[in-house]
Write a structure and sequence with these properties.
It contains 22 helices and 10 strands. The protein is of the alpha/beta class and 528 residues long. Among the domains are: 124 residues, 3-Layer(aba) Sandwich (Rossmann fold); 135 residues, Alpha-Beta Plaits. It has a 5-stranded parallel sheet, with helices on both faces. Helix 3 links the parallel strand 3 and strand 4.
């Protein structure tokens, strides 16, 4: 804290200075004055927390000094030092805000106790003031970021960023931090304070500003730009300050910083819109693949209707699915690259839309893998992927790289499965059929037994056996039926049940279609 000492007696001023220095109180003597007019000039320059003043001085007395200091908006606490015991002086002093009234001559202990009491009052008042300021900041931050700016919020803004009478405009900036490669913990208040100090000293200076550090990874800056800072060159000047702050944060703290800055707005009611534009500008990192400094370009529309574009992208995703199904790795890569080219060419596309489209690609991979691979449960990483996993990739370049690798790995796994696993699967299917001929075997039952998609099973069976599954199964049943007809005395309806036909008439019809004879005729011909 700082104190200004005022007395027309130089000896008394020096004596008080000596007493303060000997007391060990943590108090800086900001200046000394021998008359009220000099005291006012020093107070304007040094903004002391306390002013210790004599009452009776020539030209302007201590009471007039207190009145003038308060009229100028300074909030220093006064300690009145006087040789007068008259209660009227004390009463007048208290009326104009004196915190203490002490008589000359003053002892070292009395002075120390008085200064300590006033310092405690100042500390308590500052704590209360800081608490109120933080509550006002909280309400203003909510209004700014939730698009709910009301008249009372504009009043709150005036209390935090008082008008100095000069015309101007406002800008909002958003600072996003990547601390992955930094040892700085942004949940540590001291670290956040250092970040805020760098932003205020380099980016904001000399503009009046409010820094909202509610989210340490997403610091919002609201600052006033004077008329001279609202011209055409203002954006370039601001970018220069932002780049300097960005470099300083990297040099001192190892923080990678992405910065978005709104275009200037004049009306306080437009501040939520300015915040949105600053956030919008931070998206440049997503497209560029690196932290940037971007001022919102008012010529670009925010989040325009992209229904037609998303429809085109969805068609490309279908094409990608077809290439995966055909195990065409190069064409699949080409389709994926085309999708990301469309993303790059449309910077007005919201990152959320891109994340959603990319997760659609993941769903396609899941579907094609489950359809074409019987033992797809072994690919747990793919099947556990969620859209939140995709969102962990902060840039379009990172997502593209991840999906290229994922598509390539899936196609490689599917190709290997076809080359190595086909025969084993078909052998297992044939064994099941032979051991369960009396059952009603369907594709669904077979696919469930093999833990495989039924469409893929049909495809794989025909590729391995040269005929479709139904034809093979029918032939297998008929071969068994012919064996039973010639080697046993079982009736036709009994044999029909043993080879999976619950209806003997249907069995007889199928038998004759394939053999040209009824079961009875076949038995008679081959036994006798």
């Amino acid at each position: 804290m700082k104190i200004l000492i005022v007395d027309d007696d130089e000896i008394i001023v020096e004596a008080i200075c000596q007493l303060i220095r000997r007391s060990g109180i943590d108090l800086v003597i900001a200046g000394t004055a021998y008359n009220a007019k000099d005291a006012i000039r020093i107070a304007q320059r040094e903004a002391p927390d306390m002013i210790l003043t004599d009452i009776y001085m020539p030209e302007m007395n201590g009471i007039d000094l207190m009145r003038e200091i308060h009229n100028q908006g300074m909030r220093a606490k006064f300690i009145v030092l006087s040789a007068y015991r008259d209660f009227a002086y004390a009463q007048q002093s208290l009326k104009f805000g004196a915190s203490e009234y002490i008589l000359k001559p003053v002892s070292e202990q009395t002075l120390a106790d008085t200064l300590t009491r006033v310092m405690t009052i100042i500390v308590d008042e500052n704590k209360e003031k800081d608490l109120k300021r933080e509550l006002v900041k909280d309400r203003l931050y909510y209004a700014l970021t939730s698009d709910k700016m009301r008249e009372k919020n504009e009043s709150a803004l005036n209390s935090l960023l008082p008008s100095d009478g000069e015309e101007g405009c406002f800008r909002v900036a958003v600072f996003e931090f990547n601390e992955i490669d930094s040892e700085v913990n942004l949940y540590d208040k001291d670290n956040v304070m250092e970040v805020v100090q760098i932003i205020q000293s380099i980016f904001c200076d000399p503009s009046p500003n409010i820094v909202f550090d509610h989210d340490p990874h997403h610091i919002v800056v609201l600052m006033k730009a004077y008329q001279s800072q609202c011209g055409n060159d203002a954006g370039n000047i601001l970018i220069g300050h932002a780049i300097k702050a960005k470099n300083e944060l990297m040099a001192k703290l190892g923080l990678k910083t992405n910065i978005g800055i709104s275009n200037p707005v004049k009306a306080r009611s437009d501040l939520p819109s300015a915040y949105k534009k600053a956030v919008y500008a931070t998206r440049n990192k997503f497209y560029m693949g690196m932290e940037t400094v971007t001022v919102f370009d008012g010529r670009k529309e925010m989040d325009t209707d992209l229904t037609n574009l998303m429809s085109t992208i969805s068609k490309k995703v279908v094409e990608l699915a077809e290439q995966i199904n055909l195990l065409a790795s190069e064409k699949a890569r080409g389709a994926l690259d085309e999708i990301f080219e469309m993303f790059s060419e449309n910077s007005s596309l919201h990152p959320d839309s891109i994340y959603t489209a990319c997760f659609e690609i993941v769903l396609v991979l899941k579907y094609e893998t489950s359809k074409l691979m019987p033992d797809w449960q072994t690919h747990q990483r793919l099947f556990k992927l969620t859209i939140d996993d995709i969102r962990k990739y902060g840039t379009m370049k990172e997502i593209h790289h991840f999906l290229v690798k994922l598509v390539a790995n899936c196609i490689a796994s599917l190709s290997q499965e076809q080359q190595e696993g086909g025969s084993a699967v078909i052998s297992k299917a044939i064994k099941f059929c032979k051991n369960n001929l009396s059952s009603d075997i369907t594709l669904e039952i077979m696919a469930e037994h093999l833990n495989m998609n039924k469409s893929y099973f049909s495809f794989l069976f025909k590729k391995e056996m040269g005929e479709n599954f139904w034809k093979y199964l029918t032939q297998l049943k008929l071969e068994k039926a012919k064996e039973l007809l010639t080697e046993t005395n079982l009736k036709s309806y009994e044999i029909a049940e043993m080879v999976g036909y619950k209806n003997a008439s249907h069995f007889g019809k199928v038998f004759k279609e394939h053999e040209g004879l009824t079961p009875s005729e076949y038995k008679e011909k081959h036994i006798y």
